[in-house]
Amino acid sequence: MALYEHVFLARQDLAQAQVDALAETATKIVNDNEGRVVKTESWGLRSLAYKIAKNRKAHYVMLEIDAPAGVVAELERQTQINEDIIRYMTVKVDALEEGPTVMMRKSERDRERRGDREGGREGRGDRPDRGDRPRRDFDSE
After folding, report:
1. C-alpha triplet 102, 76, 16: angle, nearest 5°
2. Among 2, 22, 11, 21, which Cα is nearest to 73's?
3. Could you read off the pLDDT of 67-115 as tens digits, one per residue?
4. Poorest-pLDDT segment among 15-24, 41-50, 96-105
5. N or C, which end of the chain has less CB nearby within 10 Å?
6. What is the rounded average pLDDT of the residues 46-73?
7. Between vectors from CA 24 to CA 20 and to CA 25, what angle results, nearest 5°?
8. 102 close to 60: Cβ distance less than 8 angstroms
9. How far is CA 23 from CA 26, 47, 74, 134, in A?
10. Which residue has the higher pLDDT, 141 or 8?
11. 3 near 94, Cβ under 8 Å?
12. What is the pLDDT of residue 123?
């Protein structure tokens, strides 16, 4: 059997439970046709580079699949029919990635960076605090 990565983008107005149901539906299609889903990752609600069907954001979901080619054809056919999915792409790969994908590692790294900034002035260098500058009150002029 061949290995595939299937990514789909779901409409932004869907709840996370609905997005999970879409992933479960895709998994069921693969399993019913003698394939198997090795891993499912939800990358969350992310901004799109451009509007797609009046959507500025979309829920990203990736499935790693081990299945024959006919299964992928059926999965893409069902995905194309679903009006909640605005884009999809399936890519044949030589090997499935071990551990979290690059997108998941990136989101973890971003969370760590946000945590550093929330603690105060860490990572800002020699930038003075707002209190060190003279206050300008434009209303009193």
Report:
1. 55
2. 2
3. 998 999 999 999 999 999 999 999 999 988 777 777 777 667 777 777 7
4. 96-105
5. C
6. 93
7. 115
8. no
9. 5, 20, 15, 55
10. 8
11. yes
12. 54
Inter-residue contact 42 to 107 (CB < 8 Å): no
**Which residues, 6 or more positions from 71, have their beta carbon under 8 angstroms from its beta carbon?**
29, 30, 33, 34, 35, 65
Q: How far apart are CA 70 and CA 74, in angstroms?
A: 6
- Within 13 Å and on the Cβ side, how many CA atoms surround 129? 5
DSSP secondary structure letters along 55-121: EEEEEEEEEEEEE-HHHHHHHHHHHHH-TTEEEEEEEEESSPPSSS-HHHHHHHHHHHHHHHHHTSS
Query: Could you count the other beta carbons within 10 Å of the beta carbon of residue 11?
Result: 19
d(CA 35, CA 29): 9
- Global pTM value: 0.72
Q: Is the pLDDT of residue 32 over 90?
A: yes
Give the chain's end-to-end CA distance (angstroms, integer). 76
Mean pLDDT of the chain, nearest integer: 84
Rounded Cα distance, 36 and 58, in Å: 25
